[in-house]
Structure formats: C-alpha cells, structure tokens
Amino acid sequence: MANLIDTLAETPRPRHPEKQHRPDNPVLRKPDWIRVKAPVGGEYAETRNIVKDNNLITVCEEAGCPNIGECWTQKHATFMILGDTCTRACAFCNVKTGLPSPVDHDEANRIGDAVVKMGLKHVVITSVDRDDLEDGGAQHFVDVIKAIRAASPGTTIEILTPDFLRKDGAINTVIDARPDVFNHNLETVPRLYLSIRPGARYYHSLRLLEQVKERDPSQFTKSGLMVGLGESKEEVMQVMDDMRSAGIDFLTIGQYLQPTRKHASVQRFVEPQEFKAYETIARAKGFLMVSATPLTRSSYHAGDDFVRLRAARDASLAGGR
C-alpha cells in the first residue's frame, strides 16, 4: 500500500494532515495467512467501471481493504456515502481526514442505479463521520435506503453507520428507515479508545446499538472488533458480553492492519486458531452469527452471511415455540 504521508512533497493536500508530524511507527512483517492476491480479471474491472461511471466512493478503496480483489471479482462493493473525507481522525483508519464537501443529494440515485447494474441481492452502505452536519448525515442514509428500495425492491440493505455522537434524534431517523441490518462497529476494547478511537465513546456506541433493538426488534444488529492492537483476550470477551447485553446479533472480528507508518502499530498478528477460539466463545455467548478470521471485515461476505443470519434467527424462534 502506498504511504501517502511519506510522499507529502508530491501531494498538495495530505491524506492525514493530523498525522504528518507524528513519529513513524514500526511496521511488522505480515505472516503468510494475511497475504492476499492482487486484484485482476474482467469482473473486477467491470465492478470498478460501474463504481467510476456512477461517480461513487467505496470504502473498499478508501480504507485499503485487503479483500477488494476477491469482493470486486464477485461484483460486491461497499459504498461509502457523504464524501471521501472524514471529520474524525482515528488512529487506525486510512480514510482521508479534513473538512468534507457539501452533501451530494444525487448520490442516492446513483447508488440505486449501481445496485441494479451490479445485480446486488444484498448491499452494504457505510459513510464517513460528518460531525459538521446537524444530523450527522442521518437523513442522507434514509435517502439512500429509499433510492435502493425504489430501484431494486428485492435487494436487502445493510448499513454501517457512524456513531451520531451529540446528534439528537439522528439515530431514530435511520432506524425508522428500516434497514435489514444495522451495523455500527465498536472497533476495539474500552481501554484503547483514547488512543485508537479518540473522537468516539465506547458506551455511546454500545447504547446506539441497544437503541436499535429497543425501537425496532425486527432489525438485525451487527458490530465488529479489530484485534492485534494490544487488547487482552479477557477484554475481548468482556466486549462480547457487553454486546450481548445490548442484544447484538452478529459479531465480526478481524486482524488490524496498519495503513501507514503514521498510524497505530500492529502489536501482534493474531493466529488463525485464536480467531477460531473467539468464534467458538462468541457462539457460546449467544450471537446468532459470528465471523472471525484474520481477513474478516465488516462487509466481507455480507450477503451470504445475511442469509445465514436470517436462517439462524428463524431456527432460534422455531426452537423457542
């Protein structure tokens, strides 16, 4: 991955201005189980062309997702709305930081068109944080959901939202649009929030997901964690308990990968068997669906996982009769 901080002389507007004066952090060599194939092939190119032709942004590109080759080859992409510039500066994230552009109100229609062109049965919509907007971008999420449903009524919709911190009423606006899956990532354990996710609040994020279940119990809720940032196994298990107390249905756990030397360091690469252990523990704690592998990301295999999630709930309800 290109280190955009190191090429500052060639880049008039640095991607992470708040990080450029920080000392370089060490970068650990990736183990074999982290390596992925370079994106190639006609299907990949077709997905890329649809994204570009519709003037859309994907978190696959902006966050440097390691699974982009696999997902785009299968015509799966996660659309990132509300621009490519975030008002937060999380230590783990490769999305650009700065003052965002005004909201593009035609974006919703272009996403609906792209969903049809790609033939998506399940679509994931995420966004940057927009602390500059009165509602944090909540109404734009609603507009995108409505546009997708108008263009492709059979497509199920998963949203991965920001935390809407200090945006009174915003969360209810999005819940009432009734996405099929409401995802908001806790990202890490509470002890690491100040250094890894300083603009967020752990218990606010947890409460957000709890509010979804309180307002609309039919919606699936989902959240994710990164590991390898220095958390202990006991801390991860405590977060699992917190999530279950908030009624969260689906847990994802993946390895943190350091975007540049200016970002938080990887403290260790968690081995595949440890991810298997986390999955076993999480299922025992009552999650309907768990995805825990080194390369798991929030929207990785989201469509297939949604089918399994729905089947798991149906089976659970049938067993409770």
Write out key terms for the chains shown.
globular; 321 residues; disordered N terminus; 11 helices; two-stranded parallel ribbon; 36% helix; 7-stranded parallel sheet
Q: What is Rg?
A: 19 Å
What would the principal axes of the Cα set say about the shape?
globular
Q: pLDDT under 50 segments (min length 5)?
A: 1-11
The strands making up the biggest β-sheet line up spatially as: 1-4-5-6-7-8-9
Can you give the helix content as a percent range? Answer: 25-40%
Tally of helical runs: 11
Question: How would you characterize the largest beta sheet?
Answer: 7 strands, parallel
Percent range for β-strand residues = 5-15%
Distance between the termini: 52 Å
Mean pLDDT: 91
Kindly report the oligomeric state of this protein: single chain
Number-wise, the strands total 9
Can you write the helix and strand succession as a string? HHHEEEHEHEHEHHEHEHEH
Class based on secondary structure composition and strand pairing: alpha/beta
Sum this structure up briefly:
This protein is 36% helix and 12% strand. The protein has 321 residues and is an alpha/beta fold.
Can you describe this structure?
By secondary structure, this protein is of the alpha/beta class. 36% of the residues lie in helices and 12% in strands. The protein is built from 11 helices and 9 strands. The strands form 2 sheets. Strands 1-4-5-6-7-8-9 form a 7-stranded parallel sheet, sandwiched between helices. The chain starts with 41 loop residues before the first helix and ends with a helix.
